[in-house]
Amino acid sequence: MIVLGIETSCDETSVGVVADGVVRSNIIASQQVHGEYGGVVPEVASREHERILAHVTESALQTAEVSLSDIDGIAVTAGPGLMGSLLVGVSFGKGLAFRNGLPIISVNHIEAHLLANFIDNPGLTYPFLCLLVSGGHTQIIRVDAFGGYRMLGTTIDDAAGEAFDKVARLLDLGYPGGPYVDKYARDGDPGAYDFPRGLIDSGDLNFSFSGLKTAVFYTIAPMDEETRRRQIPDLCASFQAAVIDSLVTKIQQAVDRTGITNVTIAGGVAANSRLRQQMNELSEQLEGQVFYPAFEYCTDNGAMIAYAGWMAFRHDRPANIHFTAEPRLSISST
Ligand code: KG4
Ligand code: ZN
To answer: 68: CA distance to ligand 1 center in Å?
Structure first.
């Protein structure tokens, strides 16, 4: 079965093709226009999606060496995300499905992130834990089966990716901030500044990152321009260490509580080099294994939507054109 997946929930316009569980194309157009504003401008994002979605779709079909007549089903992100951006993908997908007489299935973006772990990891088996860390979400999810998800913990304020973006903005590094912080941190000392690890001893599996962001703000506030510039690597390394410590500590606690030893990570922050390295170290202590998606399937992408759609079709989840964009869709509603 060949599935075309459409992703427009935020600022990536992306379309992918998956044939029998194998990714045949994954075209990602990241909207550069938001860089000058230091964050995503929703109205601009939906206009950009509208402008390029048809071209990105064409290019995904070409790269996969298929035409629309070869496609068996369409999958589209219904939420969570920005209302206007989601609506562009949902309307486009429905139009494509209707015109070509194809079944269409709505995909939960969070579910697609966590299922992306299966793309290159045939060894991954249920049950497993997923640390889902993106620009909008930070959650620990227990995955017992396809469609069997339970959220064990979440952030009570900022998402991890959001914290990376906000700190990058304080330091004038560029947007999105995660990759910049990751890059500068390589030349810095993670122990240079003692930043707080929010809720680390809270006794539950929740996260908090807003205190950390505030601590970075008050640390750099008294610095002159030159000192701040020189301190960027140490500030990035220390901030990143605090975020990753919180994430890894909580996932370790989740393993201890549930007895589930297969662990996955997903979402844009799963591309972070320190998180990947610390998860590797954790895997040496676990009985099970640690999995993470290839880089291109960590940040928002159409292939993960096509893959989640392919799995949904395979599990006979009913196709239904009567769905709408749901900006606040959660994993528990899947
Ligand atoms: O999953 P994603 O593409 O979009 C959402 O669904 O939110 O995640 C985007 C987030 C951004 O906050 C970005 O700064 C962060 O992922 N990110 C990273 C890295 N690459 C992307 N954060 C830390 N380190 C990275 N290497
Ligand atoms: Zn995402």
So the answer is: 31
Decide whether any atom of ligand 1 lies within 6 Å of the 79 Cβ.
no
Helix residue ranges, H only, the chain: 42-64, 83-100, 109-115, 160-170, 177-185, 210-220, 225-258, 273-285, 302-314
- Distance from the CA of 331 to the center of ligand 2, in angstroms? 13
The token pair at 212 is: 């950390």
Kindly list the domain boundaries of the chain, sorted by start residue. Answer: 2-114+297-314, 126-292
Mean pLDDT for the stretch of residues 68-87 = 97
Q: What is the pLDDT of residues 244-253, one digit of tens each?
A: 999 999 999 9
Residue 138 and residue 142: Cα distance in Å, rounded? Answer: 13
* Ligand 1 contacts CB of residue 39 (under 6 A): no
What is the C-alpha to C-alpha distance for residues 77 and 86, in angstroms, rounded to an integer? Answer: 7
pLDDT at 332 over 80: no
pLDDT tens profile 275-317: 999 999 999 988 889 999 999 999 999 999 999 999 999 999 9
CATH topology of domain 2-114+297-314: Nucleotidyltransferase; domain 5 (3.30.420)
Q: Which atom of ligand 1 is nearest to the CA of 168?
A: 14
User: What local confidence, expressed as pLDDT, does residue 31 receive?
Assistant: 85
Atom nearest to 113 CA in ligand 1 = 1
- Output the CATH code of domain 126-292: 3.30.420.40
- Please check the confidence at residue 257 and state whether its pLDDT lies above 70: yes
Please indicate whether residue 81, judged by its CB atom, sits closer than 6 Å to ligand 1. Answer: no
